[in-house]
Structure formats: structure tokens, C-alpha cells
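Memo to structure team: turn this sequence into C-alpha cells by end of day. - J.P.
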Amino acid sequence: MNKITQLFNIKYPIIQAGMIWASGYKLASAVSNAGGLGIIGAGSMYPEVLREHIRKCKAATDKPFGVNVPMLYPNIEEIMQIIVEEGVKIVFTSAGNPKTWTAFLKGKGITVVHVVSSVKFALKAQEAGVDAVVAEGFEAGGHNGREETTTFTLIPMVKEQLSIPLIAAGGIATGRGMLAAMVLGADGVQVGSRFVATPEASSHQNFKDLIVRMQEGDTHLTLKELAPVRLIKNKFYNDLMALYAKGATPDDLKTLLGRARAKKGMFEGDLEEGELEIGQIAGLIHDIKPAADIVTDMMAEFEQAKAEIASL
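Reply from structure team:
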């Protein structure tokens, strides 16, 4: 029995990442209905919007689903209260200290998973009492670790020291990628970028169409002085690089970033002035297809690759 399917009571060890401006209830319920674990990304939602998405998700699926909470969220107390009130059973925390909320959530009977980008933070999460850890490599989209440790090296290094279930993330969009991560020691995988290119993702069609056109090398991890983030190279990115060339201070960067820059790009579809976050694996995403098909295709490719490897 797989540790991750057992922990979440799901069919396949595939978890859809909670992504800003992409993962509302439509995507989460579609992935859960297909046998994976769908996750609502609270990072782009006001508290009452999150409540509405949780309720709609419960109406759209009778399968388990979770909520991802970036802990740098300003309304964090209110968010956690809503999660408890609405009876959410699985919470993925990220971007913060797992000690802050793990005991509170576990006390309410909630399964807690924390997202990390290093061995050090994986051990801190385990010590804080989480049920599993997502170890996310440098390839991943969105906010990322400063260490630039790739998934290929991070997973075995975390596995060597961790005793709780391990979920691999960063650069995984195919069944072969899933098998590779599991061979390296992961019990399951978290997939982000591939699920953005779906009809169910709440991000703008312009952004989805752009992902399909992406090539290797079209993204870059930057803004390490604030919070490292992997961006598509567009006009906003070029403006950022020009600012760096002039010796920008963190305040200069904050001024350029302004407010709602990610919303402008990923949700409103401004491909020039928006902040566009996606993983390096986008170069391998060539079509927009339903979330259920992604889960089915990944599992079929996983089994096929496993059979091929057996013959080596």
C-alpha cells in the first residue's frame, strides 16, 4: 500500500499543487474526482472567497481535497478559522514556520503537510509534527528555495534523513517524471505547472496559451532579496533585469513589483506587465487538456515506464 494514497485516502499518489491564481474549486474537484488529491490555493483568495471555494468543492466532489495556505498570508488567523469551520480535513502549509500552526490544525483532526526546499526545513517540519513533507526542487514554478537545489538531488537527500512520508515536487509533469521521483525515494508527487494548462484552472486563457508555447530556458528564478520566484521572461521580467543592472535595492524592487502584479499577469492575462510564474517543465507542456486526462495519462505512462525499466 502506498503511504500517500493511504494518508489521504486517494486512488493515485498524485497531488495537484495549490497555486496562486490557478487552483480554485473547479481544478481541485476535477483532480480529486480523477483519483488524485485536489488542492485549493488560498494564496490568491480573500477569506470569504476561500470559504465559497471550499463549499463549492464539497458540492463538486465527494472525494478528499485539501487547502494550501502560504503562511505569509496577512489574514492567516481568519483563514485557519474558516478551514476548521468548513471541516477541511487536509491542509498544506508553505512559506513559513511549520511550528506556528501544525499543533493547532492537528488538534482539530486535520492532516498537515508542509512544503520545503531543503533538508534542514524538512527536518524542522518533521519535528513540528507534520504528517508528510513536500520537498520542492529549484525547477518548480512560483515561490522557491534560495538554495537552488534541484529535485533530482533534493529528494534522495531528504529521504535519507526523513522518517515520515515524502512528496516530490518541482519539474514533474509526466508519468516518467513521477516514476523517477519515486525511484529516488518519494512516496508520491505534487504537480503544479501541468495543471495550469487545463480548462479547469482559474488562470487566464492568455497565460495558459503562453505556457503551451514555452521552450526550455524561458523562465528564471529571481527576486531572491524579497522572496525567490520563478518567472517567465516577459516585459516585466526585462524591466526587473534592467533595474538589477542599475544596482537595485530591495525597496526599488518592491516599488517595481507594486501591488497585484501576479494577479495582473496570471489572472487578468496581461502577458507584458504581469508577473507570470511557471515551472521549468513548461517546456514539456504542449497542450491544454482536462485535469482528469492528465491524471489518467500520467498513471498510464507511469505503468508503461515501470514495465520498460523492468526489462533493463
